Amino acid sequence: MSTESEASPPSPSKRFLRGLLETAAIIVVAILISTALKTWVVRSFYIPSGSMMETLQIDDRVLVNQLAPNFGPANRGDIIVFDDPDHWLSPEEVSEYEPNPLLEFVGLAPADGGQQLIKRVIGVGGDTVECCDAQGRILVNGEPIDETYLDDGTAPSEVDFKVTVPEGHYWVMGDNRSNSADSRYHVDTQPYVSEDNVVGTVFLINWPFKHFSWMSNPESVFADVPDSEGITGS
Fold first, then answer.
1. Is the overall model pTM greater than 0.85, yes or no?
2. From 44, 51, 157, 183, the catalytic residue
3. Cα-Cα-Cα-Cα dihedral of 117, 121, 122, 126, to 10°?
């Protein structure tokens, strides 16, 4: 009768080394995946000011879909993050940004933070946007809009304007209209945000947890707005 030889079990030191290598491999893969996600797919940004209140609070963390610009232009009503188009941010505001290397490493803060803004798209290329009708409402292509995302008592705009948005650009405004240096305040320089400057579309408030919320487009606000060719759409 023959007996089967069995391999000797690995020594404790070899088991420890194998476990250490496996753990290191898992960490490296996780870092690569995280880096790929935050570079090309999703990035996290924090809200430094009150220009989007009450929709977004100071110090909220939001997730931004960076793939959205690759699948077409933003829609009216979308909240977008974009690179500063023409020195909208003062040097003082830029210098106030304090990078956090740890948060940047894990993808909870942008590596190039301090150079982007976050606003809501009100007009897209070809739209005529103006303030205001007799009831104080913004008009887009002649159609007044009831902006349900504005806080009670917030005037849609205390600044009169009438502009036609160039193709490939956006007219953007903060939800906290009296505290938002948005497109209205740059009409003498560059009030429009180029599609090329858009980082992505906000889709989630992920911190603090009590503010956790999916961010959807308020389609009903713009449902009756005709486009620049007279075709109804959002």
1. no
2. 51
3. 110
Q: How many CB atoms lie within 10 A of CB 88?
A: 19
Catalytic residue of the set 38, 44, 119, 157: 119
Contact 47, 118 (CB under 8 A): yes
Asked whether 224 and 232 are in contact (CB, 8 A), the reply is: yes
pLDDT digits over 202-218, tens only? 999 998 999 999 999 99
Query: Does residue 8 have an active-site annotation?
Result: no
Both ends of the chain: CA-CA distance in Å? 83
Report the alpha-carbon angle 132-133-136, nearest 5. Answer: 65
Q: Contact 66/199 with Cβ under 8 angstroms?
A: yes
- Angle (nearest 5°) at CA 224 between 164 and 165: 10
Cα(10)–Cα(199) distance, rounded to whole angstroms? 51
Q: Could you tell me if 48 and 58 are in contact, meaning their C-beta atoms sit under 8 angstroms apart?
A: yes
